[in-house]
Amino acid sequence: MRRRGLLAAALLLAAAGPEEPGLMVGREGGPARLLPEAALAALPAQRVSAPADHGTAERVYEGPSLWAVLEAAGLADRPRDQVRQAVLATGRDGYVAVLAMGEVSPEFAGRAAIVALRQDGVALAPAQWRLVLPGEKRGGRTVRELAGLSVATLR
Hints:
Blueprint: H1 2-14, E1 22-27, E2 32-36, H2 37-42, E3 45-51, E4 58-64, H3 66-72, H4 79-82, E5 85-91, E6 96-100, H5 101-104, E7 114-116, E8 118-119, E9 122-123, E10 130-132, E11 146-153
Parallel strand pairs: 1-11
Antiparallel strand pairs: 1-2, 3-4, 4-8, 5-6, 5-11, 7-10, 8-9
């Protein structure tokens, strides 16, 4: 089932139109491309709970895992490369949060992190998608209004 979701996302990525809503993905210093909403929706969804904003009540978020999004975009490299990579999540306001690739890679920590497409059972508009990391003591790496993901390789 997971392979079918990744295949469907790859096919939808190839067929994305220029005006279609989605998430910009790419490698730091390289061209970015649009991962369309339909491709994200085709990936297996996970459900997590986390505060909506600084200290507010818990919300339930649903969407594909960050790892599945990276795989669908062709940004998940071999484990030996992952140990020196970082994922940069950028919000529409220019806010950037950084995660080590090993944090979300199933080969290493496999931490739950999702690109939330739904909040409390209600679909979010693409401009409201967010990166959610349950269990964070501070919400600084939760990125509201997620606009893009890029992978940087550190030397």
